[in-house]
Amino acid sequence: MAEELVPNDFLVSPELFEEYFFRQDSHANIQQLANEGKLGTLKNRFISWRIFLGILPYPGPLDVWINHLTELREKYQKMIDEQRKVKIDHLDPLIFNPLSQVSDNPWNNFHEDNELKQKIRLDVERTFQERPLFLLNEVQEMMVSILFTWAKGNPEISYKQGMNELLGILMFVGYAEIPENLSRISKKASEVLNVLNSREYLEADIYWCFARLMDLGISELFNPVVTHQSMQRKKPDLFTWNAEKMHNDLVNQDKSQEQNVSSILRRCHKVHHQLLQSIDRELFNHLEAKKTEPQMYLQRWLRCMLSREFNLADTLELWDAIFANYYAESEKELSFLDFLCIAMIVFVREFCKRYLVLQSDQSGILRRLLKYPPVEDVNILVGMALKYKTKNITPVKIVTKQEVSNLSSSPLFGQKKNLGADKTPPRMFGTSQGSSGWNNNLAGSIDEAISVIRDIANEKVYNENKVNRAMEVINRIKSFIEKDVSPKTVDPLSRK
């Protein structure tokens, strides 16, 4: 049955299970295989993923695996029983009535549950329709049950479109590795594999993989991009001259560390403003100049974990690397996904630059990123992401409005009156260096900083780009002073 529904390349290999997992003395470095795009050659991806996600302790005795899975399967069954149970003991007949509109009427929950199931079922029926496996009624019912159970256990998020695609990937891997022909391995190994990849408990096993995925920062990404609180903000007056200075609240402002925005928006801005700017400043500036909103394309990439951008086989290899790097770093979220997004952006950077020479807006960039070009070997992207992750990335400084206010009141802010027409710096900066070029460079930097800070002070709207530019110039001035001024030089900020 499984061979008709799943290509042979994805079926479990009992022989490799016995060699690399059953025999504890000859286990492979599955993390390295995942980063090299070779985990699929083990043909035991379902077990490997559960190891990476912490569901199966590794390396560890097989008895521990079996006992832990047994506990999880029993827990899942109790959750289902509790959610499906309707407590009707000692209920007032006037309340427990299908026609009653009372809020605590159990019939209300019944109708709400049916609506939720219908919503889930519509999406499940559209999941991977091109694959025969997902046309099976058994598989569709299993997916509806898993998504419904998770949604009922997490009412603050409930079910959102896109979760069905994440579950579909897990379902494909789990179903493909149900053991069938075990005649070529030892009896003990076959017994263990039958328990680990049990058809009877497949729903429970996949549920816990899905729940673990949601717990690693994915569930909160399904919240709306624009929160209700942000929608309550005062709208700009578009009929005054100040309208030109108003920036779209989601464009060109780093919100990766703000708490009053949604999780998905913070994550998108972290990838764009923090990681991309540190890794490829030229490309970052290009996207900023074109007012490309990062959430327009990163929202789908992050929520669906790239499953919509690549075919199923490539997605499995990317998830191998995502899970393996989480396992290695023991992080709170799947941060390697962020670096894969950066690799994808950089991968098409030359195309974007050439294409946008003829385009005056961001539509060309978005068309390219929302319809990602085919990649011959996605392991190229994994290699790029690994390089970016191991690179010592310095987070971009986020300057607050209070820091701007402190800068504008600093003694340095008033030093411009001491600069002459030739921009010669005050004597207090020292002349022991004997270099007029150094003095001119320092004076020019001070003049530039003062100009930018005064420009910021005159702005009625907080302009984060100008603030960051001012901080860069002031840091350059600080570098001049620390490296080139003699010890006898007077600190200008301490002079009265």
Automatic annotation (TrEMBL):
Keywords, comma-separated and alphabetical: GTPase activation
The Rab-GAP TBC domain, residue ranges: 39-326
Residues forming coiled coils: none
The keyword Nucleotide-binding appears for this protein: no
InterPro entries cross-referenced by the UniProt entry: Rab-GAP-TBC_dom, Rab-GAP_TBC_sf
Pfam families assigned to the protein according to its UniProt record, in alphabetical order: RabGAP-TBC
One Gene Ontology MF term: GTPase activator activity
PANTHER family membership: TBC1 DOMAIN FAMILY MEMBER 5, TBC1 DOMAIN FAMILY MEMBER GTPASE-ACTIVATING PROTEIN
The protein's name: Rab-GAP TBC domain-containing protein
